[in-house]
Amino acid sequence: MLTTNTASPGLLFASFLYRTDLHSLSELTQFWEKHFGPSFSFVPEFNPLNEYYSKEMGQGLSRVFFLTAASYSRDHLLKVKLQSMQWENTWAENNQRRVNVDIGLLSLENFILATTKNYSHRVYVGQDIFADLTYYFHQGAFQTLSWTYPDFLDLQKKDFLEWGRSFLLHSMNLRRTASN
Hints:
Order of helices and strands: EHEHEHEEEEEH
Helix content: 25-40%
Radius of gyration: 17 Å
Oligomer: single chain
């Protein structure tokens, strides 16, 4: 008899790119944690696409990454991406985003971002959303791919996500030990 294996859970990821004159780090942290509970945050120094996004969003951009402390089923990637699009629309002014929210899921095997843009390497997950494999875990570290976004090529961001993977692995081991 054929059966499926339940996919291991992952940590929800969010990147908030925002105008500092309109939103604060503490406001966005509270907003995220109101929806998904306690989370780890990281403010990256390297943001090569700020100039690109400033054309739409304006000057004075900052970015923060969040990883949830609790794990979620992988089904949440699609749900949270759709929810984040509603948030972006709520915060928009004159059809211009003031906060850009990227959603992803960090698993033991990989790091996937959700996107509305199709491309040859992206997999359709439903409701006009695609999954973009940004990193895969191999030989003890996350590896980039030829299509990995420029924003995710620097070591600080990769280190944060590898730390998150270690946290996830430790949490899963604790749950497994507690259930035995």
